[in-house]
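Regression test attached.
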Amino acid sequence: MSDTRAKLLDAAARTVSTDGLAAASARAIAARAQVNQALVFYHFGTVAELVEAASRQRVADSVEHYRERFGAITTLSELLALGRELHERERAAGNVALMAQLMSGGQHDPVLARAARHAMDCWTAEVQAVLTRVLASSPLADVLDLAGLARAITAGFIGLELVEGVDPAGATAALAALERLGLLVEVVNDLGAVGRRALRAKLRNRR
Amino acid sequence: MSDTRAKLLDAAARTVSTDGLAAASARAIAARAQVNQALVFYHFGTVAELVEAASRQRVADSVEHYRERFGAITTLSELLALGRELHERERAAGNVALMAQLMSGGQHDPVLARAARHAMDCWTAEVQAVLTRVLASSPLADVLDLAGLARAITAGFIGLELVEGVDPAGATAALAALERLGLLVEVVNDLGAVGRRALRAKLRNRR
DNA sequence: GTCTATAAGATGATAGAC
DNA sequence: GTCTATCATCTTATAGAC
């Protein structure tokens, strides 16, 4: 890949994650890449397509980086611990902010929507695979919809990032509360047969 | 309040929620309000301040509309049912989309950040009050941080809206998974003394 | 592939008439 | 309070020289 393309991709991702989508004009990105503004359109057609390509690259790199770590997870509490670490690292790298901007921009731009969907799908697939493995013999697997839960977790990371940006203290409180909720899941998980019976009964009741 | 101000407030809220913050220029809002563009600046100073005022009005109206409904809630499952209804109604009214746009815009604009914080604070206060009342005698109240949990729930609504915009099927799956998780909370809640003991033990273990 | 120059238009905001 | 007119600035995108 040409040097210019690489510089633009990196500059696009950095501009969106640090200054937001609204500030990510062709000129702003090109300036950060120290490249002529017209090259954005020569190489990528439109600004949105450049941002999409940049997002795909970031997601591919990040998921790759965590693949073997995910593979080594065997228990629910290990997964929660890795989730904490991953959230912190990806946040610091600006990748969560990038996804959040894509999600909001994607509400009214089909190219950005495609980028947001792709990013969510990549992370969701990883999370779902680990959840399925870790909860294979748990009573929770019968009751929880792991595909949906994986997606809710990915969405939760993005939601927390947005809250963090406007109310840091609130985001910290929310994250702490969710970790307490994780504890609750572990409790039911540890209940084994008792928990399984209680869950099934509840489920029958509800239908 | 003058007719023009009211028309601008309504038009601003509608423009942001249907077309997004990026399309909410002074001209676009004024056109929807059928009012001269210069009046945006005469009445509100800047576009961001108009959007903030519009958001505050919407939030005040919505919270007021649900106040007595919230007050009538006595059980956890009633609360979950009202949450479903509220989410659906507020979504349809565009108020969740409005909040989502404020959150993402607020990442880099202090005025929008203030509006987003205010909206979150209003809803969080309502949710927390109900949670505290409903879980007063539950083993969950000891373990969960209700203030943080209320904030996480508000953030979750916004996150779901963003996912819905880029991947409707995924959002539906995520919501269904979260309702299953709510079931799980109910199970522990119903366990009474047994659940309380298990939760406390788990909490001790973790520290 | 890269550059300059420029078209064609939108934007926030203001001055000043009424 | 409301209007018109306007400024200065920004935007995407392209044409054409090198």
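Expected vs. actual: identical. The longest helix of chain A spans residues 47-71.
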